[in-house]
User: Fold these one by one.
Assistant:
Number 1:
Amino acid sequence: MSYSPLLTDLYELTMLAGYFDQGMHERPAAFDLFFRQNPFRGGYAVFAGLDTALSYLEALSFSGEELAYLENLRIFKPDFLAYLADFRFTGSITAPPEGAVVFGGEPLITVEGGLAEAQFVETALLNIINFQTLAATKAARIKLAAGDATVLEFGLRRAQGPDGGLSAARAAFIGGVRSTSNVLAGMRYGIPVRGTHAHSWIMAFPDELAAFRCYANEFPDSCVLLIDTYDTLKCGLPNALTVARELKERGHDLAGVRIDSGDLAYLSRQVRAAFDEAGFPGVKIVASNELDENVIESMRREGSRIDIYGVGTRLATCAGEGGGALGGVYKLVSMDGEPKLKLTSDVAKATLPDRKKVLRALAPDGSFILDLIALRDEEILPGAVVFDPANPVQHVRIPEQARLVELRSMVMRDGARCVPTPDLERSADLASQQLQLLPDGCLRLVNPHIYKVSISSGLNTLRLKLMNHIQSKYRT
Amino acid sequence: MSYSPLLTDLYELTMLAGYFDQGMHERPAAFDLFFRQNPFRGGYAVFAGLDTALSYLEALSFSGEELAYLENLRIFKPDFLAYLADFRFTGSITAPPEGAVVFGGEPLITVEGGLAEAQFVETALLNIINFQTLAATKAARIKLAAGDATVLEFGLRRAQGPDGGLSAARAAFIGGVRSTSNVLAGMRYGIPVRGTHAHSWIMAFPDELAAFRCYANEFPDSCVLLIDTYDTLKCGLPNALTVARELKERGHDLAGVRIDSGDLAYLSRQVRAAFDEAGFPGVKIVASNELDENVIESMRREGSRIDIYGVGTRLATCAGEGGGALGGVYKLVSMDGEPKLKLTSDVAKATLPDRKKVLRALAPDGSFILDLIALRDEEILPGAVVFDPANPVQHVRIPEQARLVELRSMVMRDGARCVPTPDLERSADLASQQLQLLPDGCLRLVNPHIYKVSISSGLNTLRLKLMNHIQSKYRT
C-alpha cells in the first residue's frame, strides 16, 4: 500500500514551512514515539506496524497533484513548495522488531534526522504504529484467553474502514491470531484465509437440509455448516448430523459446525456430545457472536467445548478499555545534540530527554526481570541501581546474574532499510515466545502485574536537572 | 480510492462458487442492509458512506493478480474463476441520501440483483456504511454539544489505520464537523484544513517567546499559539499577549491560542478574561485533549469560554457505547420474488421480509412524526394504522394531517449510478436540517426519546405469516 504524504496533520506542514524559512530545517533532531499506558489496562503491548512504517518512509515524496493542492491553500511560499518537491526522508529509525513485547513509557521508535523530516513523519508514524500495536495486543489477549483453541479474525465488516480491516488482520497475525476471513489480507500478507457461509445461504434454499447438502457437495473436505439459522438443537444439529453421515459414506469428513447465537457455552457442550455419540469426534465446533478475550475466558471456565473462536468486531476495532485507540505520542528529545524535555502538569510524567537505549534484563532462564531505559552512550552493568521514572527516589538494583540485551536496533539509516524485514510468521513467533517470558501475572486480563520499566542513573540525573531548569525558568 | 474486490470475507466467495455451480447465481434476490440499535445509545444516526459504496460497486472487477491468488487457494474450480474474471455488479441500489437522519430497524441500503452479485457485495458495503455512518453520527453528537462553537477534527494520528482517519474526516464533515487537520481529506474531499503547531515547535527554540514570535512572523494572519508547553497561565498566556501586541503594531491580529492540558474550562475563562482586558476580544480560544460530546457539554454547562474544540481520538475512533462499531447487518429479504425472513432467538427481532419502502410522516411544519416501513407496492395513506415491529399487537394511527415522504430512492440501476452525487456540503446541510426536525428529546446525549419506527399492516401480516410458517416447520 502506498500512503500519500498528505496523510498528515496540516500543522506538520506549517511547522515545516516555519523551520524552512528560519533555516532550521536541517538542524539535527531526534524524536521518540512512545505510549504512556499499556492498552486495555493490560500488562503488556505487542509492537507492530514497523514494516508498514518503513515502507511509508521509503516512499515518501510529494506528487505534482499534491503540491498543486498545497499551493492552492495559499498558506505556503513558493520556495517552501519547491523544497517539498524534492523532500525525502533521509533520516534513521531505531525500533524493536515487530512482535516484541513492549511496555508503557519505553521509547519504541526513535527518529533521527533533520528537524523538518523528523518532525514531518509524526502523524503517519503514530497512525500506523498506534493502531497496529493496539490490534496486535488485542489479538494476543484473545489468543491467550483461547488457550489451545484456534482463533479466526473476521472483523472486516465492522472494522473502521477498509484499511482498518486490513491492518487489523496483519497486526492480529503478529499477536497470535493466525487466520482471517479477509481475502485481501490473505493475498497481501500471506495470512491463511478461512470461512464458512452466511445465514443467507440457508435461506436461499427450500430448506436447511438442502442448503447443508449442497454446501457439503461443493466443499466436501472443508465444509463448516452454520447451524443456528432456525433452531440450533432442534433443527441445525440433526441436519448437520445427517450431512456428516452422508459425507462419511462418500469418504469425506464434515470439517465442522458454527454456532452464531444463543448460549454458546451450553450449545457447544450439547453439540459436542451429539457428534461424539454419533461417532464424529473430529467435527470441530466454531463459535462466533460478539466474542472477545473476556467472553472467551469465562466460557472456557464453564467448560465450553469450542475448537475455533471466530472473533470479529471487538478484535478489528480493538474494543475495550481505552476506547479503541493507543495513546502513542511523539516528542522531541534532542536537538543540535542538546537533550530536550517536555514537562506536563504532572511532573512525574515529564518526558525522557535525549537519545536513549532500552535494555531488557533477563534471568538465566531467559525470563524478563525488568526493562531499563538509559542514555545511549551510558554503560550499564548488572548490579546497577535503577530508578522509577514516576518516582525518582524509588530505586532497585539489577540482579548481578542478569543478562542485559538491547530491545531495539537501527533498522533504517540515511532513509534506507539496513536490516532485512522479518516475515510475519517470525514476528508472530517472537510475540508468542516473549509473552511466555513475562513475570507471573503480567498476562492476567484484569489488574495484571505491572512489569517494571526503570530509568538509569544517568538518565534520571539528566531528567531532574532539565526539570529543575525549566521550572526555575518558566514557573516562578 | 479503489477497493480491491478481495476486500471481502472468504465466505462470500465460497457461497458464490456454490451458487454458480448450482446455477443459482442469477436468480433474482434482494438484500437489506440495516442496523438494529442507534449507535452510542442515542436517538438517531446520520447516514453516510453511500458515495464511497457506489464507487466501489461501479469499479468492482477482479484483476489477473487477484484471480491468480484465488486460483492458488485451490478451493475454486476453473469455470468459477472464469466467471469471476467477467464479474461486475449489474444490480440496483436503493438508499437514502447521505446526511439523512435514520434509525435502527430501517432498511438503509437495499441491493437487488442476481443472487451472486447481491450476496458478494455484503462485506464491503457493511465495512463502508457501518464506519462512515457511525463517524457521521459521532460528529453530529459532538457538533450539537458544541453549539455555536466550531469543531475541528484532528484524529488522524489515533485513527484505526490511514483510511480510518480519512473516512472519519469525510463522515465527520457530513455529521457537522466541517474542518479537519487531515491534509489528504482536504485534497480528496475538499474539506477545509486547519491546524496550529505542536509542543515540539516550542521546544525547538531557545524559549517559548522566541517560538511564538517566529510562528507569528511566519503566519501573521492565521497564527494560533499553543500556550501550555511550560505553564499556561504563568508563561504561555503572557507570552501570547506579548505576541498579540507585537502583531497588532504591525497591522495583524493574533488568530487564537490553544490549550491542550489542564482544566480546560477554568483555563479558558482565565485566558478569555486576560485577552479581553488587554483589548483582544477577537482572539479565539481553541481547546483540545480527549474531548467528546460529553466533556464538551459539561464544560459548556460550567461556563467555559471556548470558541473552537479540537476533537481527535474519540471522534476518529467513534469511542463510546458500542465499542467503536455500528452493528450493521445484511439480510436476504427476497428471492425469486418470494419474501424471505430470518428468525432469531428473540422472535420480536425477526427480520422484515420482502422489498420495502421507508416512509417518513411529516407534520405540517415539516417536523418528523414517525417512520413507517411498508411493502414496496403497498398503498399507505395518512390515517393508516401502523404497528410496532417489536410488539405486533401495539399499534398507532398516522395523523390525518401528516404528509408521507419516501426516505429512499433508487440511486443505482443496472450497475450504473442513476442520480447525480450531491456534494459533501449538501449532505452536511441535509443532516443539519433534519436533526432540527426530530421530536423533542431525540438529540439528548443520554437516554434520548426513542423515535417511533413502525411497520405497515401489510408488512406486519406478511411477517407474522412467515414467522408462523418457519416455527411450525423447524421448531416443533
Number 2:
Amino acid sequence: MNNIAGEIIGYVAGICTAVCFLPQSVKTIVSKNVRDLSFWSYLLYCLGIFLWIVYGFYIGSVQMIVFNAVSLVFAGIIFVMIVRYRSRS
Amino acid sequence: MNNIAGEIIGYVAGICTAVCFLPQSVKTIVSKNVRDLSFWSYLLYCLGIFLWIVYGFYIGSVQMIVFNAVSLVFAGIIFVMIVRYRSRS
C-alpha cells in the first residue's frame, strides 16, 4: 500500500468513528427511549475516548485529539440521555 | 508526562474501547430488543473499526489491530442483531 492510500484509509476510519454516534444521539434525543442502550457500554466508551484524547496530547497528534473529541461529544450526549431517562424505561 | 504513564494511558484507553461493547452485545443478545439502537451508528462504527484494522496493518501496529479486532467482534454482534431483529421492533 502506498503512503497516500494508507493516509486516506486512516482519515476515512477517523471520520467514520468520529461521527458514528451522531445517528444514535439524534435517535435517542428524538425518542427519549434508552431501554435497549447499555449504560456500561457508553460509560466505558466515553472513558476510553477521553483517555485517547489524553494520549493524543501525549503523542502530539492533532487528528487523534480532534476525531476523538467529536466522538466524545456524541457519545457523551447518549450517555447523559441514558442517565437521565433510564429510570422510566 | 513520562513515557510509562503515557503508554499506560494508551493501553487503558485501548482496553476500554476494545471491550466497551461487550455489555451492549450481552444486553442485546439476552433481550433481543433493538428498537432503541441506531442501525447507521453501528454500521458506521463497524466500517470505521474495520478501516482502523487495515490502517493498523499499514503502520504495523499490533496493538491497533488487536484492540480494534476485539471491538469489531462485539460491535459486529450488535450490528447483526439489529439487522436480524429490527423488523419486529
